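Late entry, written up from scratch paper. The run itself happened at the end of the previous shift, but nothing got recorded in the book at the time, so transcribing now.
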Amino acid sequence: MTLHLPGARGALRAYEPRTEPLALAPGAPFASRTVFAAAHVVADPYADTTPDSPAAVDWDATLAFRRHLWSHGLGVAEAMDTAQRGIGLDWAGAAELIRRSAAEARAAGGRIACGVGTDQLTGGPKALPEVRAAYEEQLALVEESGAQAILMASRALAATARGPEDYLAVYGHLLRQAADPVILHWLGPMFDPALDGYWGSADLDAATDTFLQVIAAHPDKVDGIKVSLLDARREVELRRRLPKGVRCYTGDDFHYPELIAGDDLGFSHALLGVFDPLGPLAAQAVRVLDTGDRDGFRALLDPTVELARHLFRAPTRFYKTGVVFLAWLAGHQSHFTMVGGLQSARSLPHLAHAYELADRLGLFPDPKRAEDRMRTLLSLYGVTP
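Output as recorded:
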């Protein structure tokens, strides 16, 4: 049946949903690339909460989604930006998420890496020793859980650091302490405005030099870097300057096909929020790449970029709303509710176009269910045929 979807100016347009999904079967981990999907959390829709309340999480549905990703061979990047870290999920909730997901990973035989930050610090500016201690607390919890650590960019450090030397000191201390090699995470201000000027400078060339100094001082403690600057050229230049053995995990949700495919001088691995909704299709594409077929990989993944750019369009930090919306349409959760009430962060026309783009790609295992749920949402907004 035809759906009538609202456009940006309010006019309705007719859309004929597809009737068959893509055939995307689970499979083994990959041979040529290490790939993490940054996974969202499923809110408890029956919890009596407010946007300022601690997150109420539906643990069964949240962990089931992680099993879905592992079944397709993807690793899970846990308690990251996609999980609404610092925008609905506080440190207490993130700590519980890390413990539960790490235990689930052991049971399922899945790969997991977890975010280490400083979000237990609240209030005004903090001294550097407080920032360092907060990082240490979270690093200890992740290591005790048996997961790999991802050292995330810290709002508290960005607010406190006086220059590059403070970043070098804090990260150097943490890397010396880390039991195993970690992933360093550089999240750009388009994802979190509070991180503007990270690594001690708003000049990205200067910031990159400081970032590379951190890695060069402790290459044995850095498994890789995760870069989310939405600048493909800069990422390629950066990965070519990395010490041997240090991976580059692209976090560029605009240019991921070309960056993962790579060129004759190298390639990026992946740690991507967009692989939450694209998981099965992304996994199939990487398996094609495992055979050496770069063109086949691009043929599968290039058509997904339009959806990714739509989900991550400015203000980029609200991409989580589209990710959770698509998880609801795909049947991974029974409702479209988010911790912190973030389901309200995107407009109906935005969500309608996300549905259309995802449906065209065949991302919904049951297209009829997705159509029915889209129709329900439209009716709640007063859209009638």
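Strands lie at 3-6, 12-15, 35-38, 75-78, 112-116, 148-151, 182-187, 222-228, 247-250, 269-272.
(Scratch paper discarded after transcription.)
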